[in-house]
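Sat 14:20. Reprocessing the chain from the morning session after the first attempt stalled halfway. Input below, unchanged.
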Amino acid sequence: MTAVTSTAPGTTTAEHELATLQREHGRTLFALLLRLSDGDRQRAEDLVQETLVRAWQHPEALHAAEFESVRPWLLTVARRLAIDARRARRARPPEIVDEVPENARVTADHAERAAAALDVRQAVKTLTPEHRDVLILVYFRGASVAEAAEILGIPAGTVKSRAYYALRALRRVLPGYATEPR
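Finished this time. Tokens:
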């Protein structure tokens, strides 16, 4: 395997021997490593390649006279690589996935909030003065219905009614904004 004589145009003896190892033992290695990798095909393929790299790095093991077949050596190397890979994964903290979990609450950034605030201000300006006064007192200043009724000098039922119609009008003017549940 250490010879660099050419066997075919563009290939060396080492490359030819690696191709032969892959062809003769690749499926067996893959089956073992797939089982040891808990069915992770990508990891198993990577470990097969790493096993073949180790074979390329240690040609003396492949040509030892005491071996009838190189397969037991390859399977031992593959098993040890799988064990080492599993230990390495357990030693590391879990990887963070780029996906947003389904139940994660999405918050707008500062620019989006500022733009939304401008849109709402413009929409509030389209309301009648009566609806606008109720909306500002109840929703923006946090007054209760009773407090708003007292300030405006109107019955509490009228405050509720005006607030309802003001919100309905805003929903028509701001169709792209969804209300967030509290």
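The first helix runs from residue 13 to 36.
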